[in-house]
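Whiteboard transcription, Tuesday session. T.W. wrote the structure tokens on the left side:
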């Protein structure tokens, strides 16, 4: 694979950072939360984070989040399922999720 193909795959894997109160509390412990592709493995997630943000990843924990049933104008709807990754960084390293890549 070429460098461009690898880099584009990294962008496919890492969809967006998760910016919630709980996710920002993770940053106190050297962790960052991301929404990732459903077919991404922990190894692929680790490579993508290290390649895009130039940091050292020590661990990756993933969870599949089931979409909620919600009502919209009286009709029942379903939010999409997604995969969430909590990435632990090496001591002293940080990722600023408020700025773009």
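and on the right, the sequence the group agreed on:
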């Amino acid at each position: 694979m070429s460098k461009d193909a690898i880099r584009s795959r990294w962008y496919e894997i890492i969809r967006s950072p998760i910016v919630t109160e709980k996710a920002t509390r993770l940053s106190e412990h050297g962790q960052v939360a991301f929404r990732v592709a459903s077919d991404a493995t922990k190894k692929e997630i680790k490579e993508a984070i290290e390649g895009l943000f130039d940091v050292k990843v020590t661990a990756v924990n993933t969870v599949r989040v089931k979409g909620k049933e919600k009502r919209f104008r009286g009709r029942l709807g379903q939010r999409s399922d997604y995969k969430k990754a909590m990435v632990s960084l090496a001591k002293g390293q940080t990722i600023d999720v408020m700025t773009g890549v």
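Someone added at the bottom: The chain has one domain: 3-89.
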